[in-house]
Amino acid sequence: MDFNPCMKHKVVRKTVREFAEAELGAIAAELDREARFPREVAGKMGPLNYFGLQIPREYGGAALDSISYAITVEELSRVCPAMGLCITVHNSVGAFPILAFGTQAQKSRYLPELASGERIGAFCLTEANAGSDAGGVETHAVADDAGNYRINGTKIFVTNGGICGLALIFAVTAPDDPKRGASVFIVESEMPGYSVGEIEDLCGMRANPVSSIFLEDCPVTVDHLLGKPGDGLKIGLKTLDTGRIGIAAQGLGIAQGAFEASIRYAKERQQFNRPIASFQTIANYLADMATEIDAARLLLYRACALKDSGKAFGEAAAMAKLYCSAVAVKTADKAVQIHGGYGYSKEYEVERFYRDAKVTEIYEGTSEVQRMVISRAVLNRLV
Ligand SMILES: Cc1cc2nc3c(=O)[nH]c(=O)nc-3n(C[C@H](O)[C@H](O)[C@H](O)COP(=O)(O)OP(=O)(O)OC[C@H]3O[C@@H](n4cnc5c(N)ncnc54)[C@H](O)[C@@H]3O)c2cc1C
User: Which residue from 363, 371, 372 has its CB within 8 A of the most atoms of ligand 1, so it is best to mutate?
Assistant: First the structure.
């Protein structure tokens, strides 16, 4: 089935696929092994607008619609999920909040640098005691008489942490107010008191420099506050709705990559003097993969279409994220099974897809949290 809703989307898919295969295909395994972020490839992606996918043209972005955005993340992740992660986090939870909630001055100051990739963006919500429960944030920002702030705290598991030039920091500004106690600050990496911790030694997504970020008496003027004081929860929830489209696209790309590798292998590998694809069980695995990937893609593009038509899309994005990440994990697991012992070896890319897939069920809201979002919407509708 043709999943490119129009010619524009066909062109985006073809262009990104060619780029990903040419620039990342041959090195994806090495990047994973060495846990190395490919700065040389990122340098080529800047002028091609990968860092400004949905940023308006007036700020130097590509102003793509959400389906084109999802296709881009999907195609990068089909080859190198860790680079798909860099791009989706930068675009959807790094740049998007500034576009949606920033003042004109903040947009003019930061969006051109984000769009060109000169500054890579990061989203810093998670802390040691604040994971699924964002209300547990302990990083705090204290205002002085002039309304400027000093931020103190430690953020963990920051995607792009080791390479980012701009971090959105969630910090408590009104400790006694559970609903409007948190605010978001735009922090530049060269600011005093900002430092990067060790890069995490991760199971998958190893080419992304995920790290902690330390803030020690980091001084920020009031023009670094995103939205109003107390807008943290609102900005966080809206941002994660958008972010989930990107993680769903990432899961879909991983599933697609693992599926294609399985087809190739099943046709090639001979046992009992026949290709293993001729065994009914293996063919059934491939049929299930194909069906689930198509269903995942439809859910994802529906969320994108709702977003682009200005309709509520939070529930659809949560469904897409929940389902696409589950399909990524299941497809990668079956891909290893189809490859037998070779699938468990680093010689074959399905081993990397298997490790990369799992985290799509964890970040930007675990699958349990997605079910909370979906069930809340369902129950509200039926009452
Ligand atoms: C590679 C990687 C990159 C990441 N990148 C970022 C980033 O860029 N920025 C950022 O801010 N964070 C990032 N994270 C953090 C990620 O978003 C959190 O790990 C995730 O939100 C879960 O939080 P936690 O790890 O504290 O788990 P916990 O919240 O402690 O959850 C543990 C388990 O309990 C379950 N659970 C918790 N509460 C409930 C509930 N109410 N009902 C049912 N089950 C529940 C969870 O679903 C999970 O299964 C990243 C994490 C990883 C691994």
Answer: 363
* Model confidence pLDDT, tens digit, residues 168-183: 999 999 999 878 899 9
Instruction: Look at residue 360 and tell me whether its pLDDT is greater than 70.
Output: yes
The atom of ligand 1 lying closest to the CA of 126 is: 11
Burial class (CB in 10 A: 0-12, 13-18, 19+), 358: middle
Render pLDDT for 221-270 as a digit per residue (tens, 0 to 9).
999 999 999 999 999 999 999 999 999 999 999 999 999 999 999 999 99
Token pair of 121 as six digits: 């963006």
What pTM, to 2 d.p., does this model score? 0.97
Q: In whole angstroms, what is the distance from residue 255 CA to residue 31 CA? A: 20
> Any residues with Cβ below 6 Å from ligand 1, and which?
89, 123-126, 131-132, 157-159, 202, 205, 210, 359, 362-364, 366, 368-369
Both structure tokens of 4: 């490119």
Residues designated as active site: 364
Write out the two tokens for 112: 């051109």
Ordered domains of the chain (ranges, CATH): 7-116 (1.10.540.10), 121-230 (2.40.110.10), 234-382 (1.20.140.10)
Contact criterion met (CB below 8 Å) for 349 and 29? yes
Ligand 1 centroid, distance to 366 Cα (angstroms): 6
**What tokens does 149 get?**
């702030």
Q: DSSP for 64-109? A: --HHHHHHHHHHHHHH-HHHHHHHHIIIIIIIHHHHHH--HHHHHH
How many angstroms separate the CA atoms of 80 and 260, rounded? Answer: 14
Give per-residue pLDDT as tens, 136-158.
999 999 999 888 999 999 999 99
- pLDDT attached to residue 235: 97
